[in-house]
Amino acid sequence: MNSFRGQTLSWTLANGVIELLLDRSPCNEIGSATLAELEQFISALPSLQKEAHSLIISSARKEGFCAGADLRELYHRSQELPAPQRIGAVRDFLQRIHAVMNALDGAPLTTIAAVHGVTFGGGFELALACDLIVADKMARFCFPELRLGLIPGFGGIPRLKRDLGNAVVRDLLLTGRSINAAKGQAVGLVSQVAAEGDALRVARATAAQIGKFDRHTAVAAKQFIKPIPHQELRREIEIFCELFTRPAVEAGLRKFVESTEPMPYLP
């Protein structure tokens, strides 16, 4: 199936490039519906990649690329379950999203995140699973999880640590503040900065350039330079689940859910 349109995302395959478009109001929060459709995409990927050399992930939402996990859904679902079952449900969700991220991380394609605006939390982690990040100059990257008493749970810490120096990793993780595209390029996070509204066009031009080269060589180079930190990723899930049981986390999630701000994840 070379194209798909779901409730939260769509994909197409043309001229050797797969384009995965996130489109869920307000800012592509990743909850059960998005995860299920991402899993559909991963199931379709072995067939799609036979005809493709590149994958571009972008957003149709003007607010940004992705604001991260659907914290409202996470809170309400956890409250519906008896306390002993909550951690099992959280761990199951994290293991599923990690499977998606690992499949993207290791896919035998060159993967490009074309980002703009809000690229926070799980959205930042989705971009980090890609080989290249092309960022609109208005993009901002942030791990806001510490404000809720949590750490990033979609694989962000091990992947950021793999790609950048520890000073940058610690600053993003421990302060919760955001950085812009120019700073992201300066520290080695962003490969190209595009004009406002131009990230997808630049990503497409990059994919066209990649398509000129031997695919098997590109795959071998990617596997050599981009190992997946499986052990650290598993440990991240356990730390997240340990922290999730703390009363401070429930209080932080409740405050987020009760916020009347249109985009409460903004710093």
Topology, element by element:
Blueprint: E1 3-5, E2 9-14, E3 17-22, H1 32-48, E4 54-59, E5 64-66, H2 71-80, H3 83-106, E6 110-115, E7 118-120, H4 121-128, E8 132-136, E9 140-142, H5 156-163, H6 166-175, E10 179-180, H7 181-186, E11 192-194, H8 199-210, H9 215-225, H10 230-244, H11 247-258
Parallel strand pairs: 3-4, 4-6, 5-7, 6-8, 7-9, 8-11
Antiparallel strand pairs: 1-2, 2-3, 9-10
Helix pairs in contact: 1-3, 2-3, 3-10, 4-5
CATH superfamily: 2-enoyl-CoA Hydratase, Chain A, domain 1
Our count of helices gives 11
CATH architecture: Alpha-Beta Complex
Shape: globular
* Rg, Cα atoms, Å: 18 Å
- Strand tally is 11
Write the H/E string, N to C.
EEEHEEHHEEHEEHHEHEHHHH
Number of structural units classed as domains = 1
The rounded distance between the terminal residues' Cα atoms is 40 Å
Fraction in helix: 40-55%
Nearest-integer average pLDDT? 94
Question: What structural class should be given to the helix and strand makeup?
Answer: alpha/beta
Q: Ranges with pLDDT <50 over ≥5 residues?
A: none
Q: What is the highest CATH level, the class?
A: Alpha Beta
The CATH topology turns out to be 2-enoyl-CoA Hydratase, Chain A, domain 1
What summary fits the major beta sheet? 7 strands, mixed
Per DSSP, what share of the residues sits in E-state strands of 2 or more residues? 15-25%
Strand order of the largest sheet: 1-2-3-4-6-8-11
Q: How would you portray this structure in words?
A:
By secondary structure, the chain is an alpha/beta fold. It has helices at 32-48, 71-80, 83-106, 121-128, 156-163, 166-175, 181-186, 199-210, 215-225, 230-244, 247-258; strands at residues 3-5, 9-14, 17-22, 54-59, 64-66, 110-115, 118-120, 132-136, 140-142, 179-180, 192-194. The longest helix is centred in the middle third of the chain and has 24 residues, at 83-106.
